Request: fold
Amino acid sequence: MIATNKAIEITDLTVAYNDKPVLWDVDVEVPSGILMAIVGPNGAGKTTLIKSILGLVKPAAGQVLVYGKPYAEQRHLVGYVPQRGSVDWDFPTSVLDVVMMGRYGALGWFRRPGASEHIAALDALEKVGMKSFAQRQISQLSGGQQQRVFLARALAQDAQLYFMDEPFQGVDATTERAIVSLLQELRAAGKTVIVVHHDLQTVPEYFDWVTLLNVRRIASGPVREAFTEQNLRLAYGGKIAFLSRETSNQ
Reply:
């Protein structure tokens, strides 16, 4: 049972690489049950923010709580889809095996997956339209297919909180629509989904919450309140080629 309606509480978070701040004094609260985009220019610290929450990057200062507790105590509630480019797709393993990895957190490392894990993995593959590829080697898949497999792995985990780092990068329009539908289904089921996203045009259509980041937090809140022309200009330093009609009218 989750005792708080806050999925994430980030307080005074600062992260530096070689003494150069990548995130500076960031405060963000994310309520449960929303679909949130993290947007900002290249080098804004978007991926670093996710990695800090997941304990993959050690902050210089600050605190992160996941459902009111440190991430190490809540790891079983969290699913993560990294950037596709950060994965070794030549590793010799099948699609089904990759998705089954999502069940290891529930199993523990010393129990072998059984029939129920097999069924859960196939069910997750079916949800992303990849069940017929279960025995295919991951190296034989297209970029969009690989992304769907990673989404299936996260689904198989049956988490409460999902992080996805640029899930739409390099995928075709059909895959993008399938991913959006999946994200909306997760939200409808009460899950919280946080997505590093780069296409500003689709933010109002795909998401109900947004965090604008450029080393510091520029704004965070419901899209209709935070995704404004002023905040976008603050985040992108005025170097912004696109402002949506919805944004400009706010």
In short: The first strand starts at residue 6 and ends at 17. Confidence is low (pLDDT under 50) at residues 106-110, 244-250.
